[in-house]
Amino acid sequence: MQENSQVVIRTPELLTAIVHGLDAPDQRKLMPVSKYFFYSVGPLVWKRVPRVDFLMRIIKGTIVDPLTVILPRLFRYKIFITLPPDPDLDRYNIYAPWVQEIDFFGGRILQEIANPNRLLTLLNSRPLLPNLDRITVYSIIPITEPSIKLVNLFMNPSLKEIRTVLHEKDGGILRSFPMPWSLGPIFINHIKQTCPRLETLEFYPEADWGVALLIY
């Protein structure tokens, strides 16, 4: 049995094949086994991040509060993320390059980072996720200016896809919230300035967006 384990460890392709056959919880269980497993399995486990708070929890001292929302028909709840005054990015700098995809607002869960400026200052103009390829925004909750600014925070030159999921059935209700025309400049201008490699942009504006886009 020990010899078989050594064969797996010495054969990265075999380890990768085994890990791909496991579900996410079992993949995560392998990471603490050894330093080799941590760095071999980590990029697979962290390739896609389904919520921003999962990523921010890596930073020691971050406070993540799920708050009850007063409009339960629109949101399930809101996750309010507060970073420490002086974030230690040692762990974050290990995990961040592994992330290639990140999702926003899935499951009707609103998210907000209270104080991102300190983090951005420490990164010194480096992107939050340097190898990010894809952003998915679940437009099944009302899109607000703070929501757009959160998504914009994670945009960087490596991005190739930005997609919006417009429709989702929840309890028999079809939820759909197109982007308000007033938020167009915040979204589009940031993409123009930040994402030179973008190949796919999918989003759904309100019907009266045409005039607004011509203005900007």
Task: Provide a descriptive summary of the structure in words.
This protein is of the alpha/beta class and 216 residues long. The chain has helices at 2-10, 12-20, 24-30, 35-45, 52-56, 90-95, 117-123, 145-153, 184-194, 209-215; strands at 48-49, 63-67, 77-82, 101-104, 109-113, 134-138, 161-165, 168-170, 173-175, 200-201. It has ten helices and ten strands. It has a five-stranded parallel beta sheet with strand order 1-4-6-7-10. The protein is globular and about 55 Å long. Mean pLDDT is 80; it is low at 1-8 and 210-216.
What helical percentage do the residues reach? 25-40%
CA-to-CA gap between the ends? 65 Å
**What is Rg?**
19 Å
Indicate the proportion of strand residues. 15-25%
How many beta-strand segments? 10
- Summing up helix and strand content along with how strands pair, one would put the structural category as alpha/beta
Q: Work out the helix count.
A: 10
Order of helices and strands: HHHHEHEEHEEHEHEEEHEH
Sheet with most strands: strand arrangement? 1-4-6-7-10
Low-pLDDT sequence parts: 1-8, 210-216
pLDDT averaged residue by residue: 80
Q: Identify the overall geometry.
A: globular
Descriptors for this entry?
alpha/beta, 10 helices, 10 strands, single chain, 3-stranded mixed beta sheet, globular, 216 residues, disordered C terminus, 5-stranded parallel beta sheet
Write a brief structural summary:
The protein is α/β, with parallel strands linked by helices and 216 residues long. The chain has helices at residues 2-10, 12-20, 24-30, 35-45, 52-56, 90-95, 117-123, 145-153, 184-194, 209-215; strands at 48-49, 63-67, 77-82, 101-104, 109-113, 134-138, 161-165, 168-170, 173-175, 200-201. The strands form three sheets. Strands 1-4-6-7-10 form a five-stranded parallel beta sheet. Strands 2-3-5 form a three-stranded mixed beta sheet. A two-stranded antiparallel ribbon has the order 8-9.
